[in-house]
Amino acid sequence: MKRIKRAARIGVLLLVLFALSHTSFSGLLFPWSPVRPGYARETFSGGTVIYTKRGGMPPAYRRVGDLMAEVSRANGLRFREDVTVVVTDDWGLFNRGTLLGWKATPLPVLGAALQTGTVIYVSPLALEPGRDMAGVLRHELTHALMFQQMPLRQTFALVRLDWFEEGLAVRAGNPRDYLDDHAWSLHARHPGYRFGPWGDGELRTVPEELRGSFRLSEYRVFIEFLVGRYGRDRFFAYRDDVLRDPPAHEAAFQRHFGAPFARVVAEFEQAVREGTWPRA
What we know:
It is a single chain. The chain folds into 2 domains: 2-149, 2-Layer Sandwich (Zincin-like), CATH 3.30.2010.30; 162-274, no CATH class. The chain is of the alpha/beta class. It has a 5-stranded mixed β-sheet with strand order 1-2-3-5-4, with helices on one face. The protein has helices spanning 2-21, 64-75, 91-97, 133-147, 152-160, 162-172, 181-188, 211-230, 232-244, 249-257, 261-274; strands spanning 39-44, 47-52, 83-87, 111-113, 119-122. Residues 10-27 have low confidence and may be disordered.
């Protein structure tokens, strides 16, 4: 036990040293400190929002408790812990907060949920005019909700199952930030289409600036294909098994849907190529 406690103390010290070495006055530690130069904090039912004083509190996030309730209802799961939302207005803070590092190149992402399930960072991209900030937060809250259902060690396998985790988050969160069914289908309906995890032939016909949006919409479209074919209850039963044991997702798929994952993917690809899915 003493050895475990000593290792834990060393781990905490290393984390603090890492944070300090990657911190400026707009850096990682200050939002969490009792004294936060340049930051303000407001606490709501179920969540806390930390934001820069220069940027102000996003009005949509005064409803953070309501947004958490919406995400909980949409997914049929409950939050087990409160969530802290950090709204960033510069990429340095976002990159350091999400542990991407001091000099990480800005990524075209709207936000990130840490795998503890209790911290969400909203990126400067989400603050652009016309963005659905409530939808962005619902997206990241969906990630956090899933992370809260499982031990931290299991979350690493879950995030590798990109189509599943991102598809759920886009569907329950912010589908309007990505291609709608019609726009997505225009790029996907051709003989070379393959579902994302299986091939990237379809991306050759997608303009480079739309490829991220195409892929995230694809994951949503595939999940809606599964829900449409098998029903919400069976899909959620499958989802719950995946959250319990992500590496066994293909066995869970066979168990709940009565067919191998590869066969259903092939049927989805054919429906997309023929124009029968997504439905008009």
